[in-house]
Design brief:
3 helices, Rossmann fold, binds zinc ion, alpha/beta, single chain
């Protein structure tokens, strides 16, 4: 796809724990890695900003089953499962956003309390393109926050075997 200098590609949570064999695996989670690598190369070639978020939980995080949360333990800070998928070719200047680091609450969105909105505004970003894991949880929350912050927001997803970029508004997720 064509990127512009005032675009940001946001790669959400492509971490080992969300890929096959991980603590909270998503079926086919690893399949998006080559697609994301291609997107990142295209974005880098156009001078677009590349952001990658990661779930980055302390031990005993509020979202874990042991504390009454809905998820098994996953993406614990500095653990293997919290690492980015080994096939992901992140450019060295990618902006890494850690979320979910607050012991007492979950943060599904890459924009929630991370300073990302201000950082993108500071860089003059107008449009964001979001791709990652998981579509209905962290990708969704990130896209809704991006749209609320006033960025033209697009989400890439697969439909009938084809990848499409769609404008993401609250309506889109219904
Ligand atoms: Zn999490």
């Amino acid at each position: 796809m064509r990127f512009h200098r005032d675009d940001a590609l946001i790669v959400v949570d492509v971490q080992r724990d969300f890929c096959p064999g991980g603590a909270l695996e998503i079926a086919g989670g690893g399949d998006i890695v080559p697609i994301i690598n291609r997107l990142m190369a295209e974005a880098a070639a156009s001078g677009a900003c590349i952001v990658t978020s990661r779930d980055w939980h302390p031990k005993d995080h509020a979202s874990f089953n042991a504390r009454g949360g809905v998820w098994p333990e996953h993406c614990i800070q500095e653990s293997n499962g919290a690492k980015f998928h080994e096939g992901l070719r992140l450019p060295p200047d990618a902006l890494v956003i850690s979320k979910g680091a607050d012991l007492h609450k979950d943060q599904y969105s890459a924009f929630d309390g991370t300073g990302l909105t201000d950082e993108l505004r500071r860089r003059g970003i107008r449009r964001v393109i979001i791709r990652g894991l998981a579509l209905d949880v962290c990708v969704r929350a990130s896209a809704l926050d991006a749209a609320r912050a006033g960025f033209e927001t697009r989400v890439m997803r697969r439909r009938r075997g084809r990848y499409r970029i769609k404008t993401a508004s609250a309506q889109y997720w219904k």
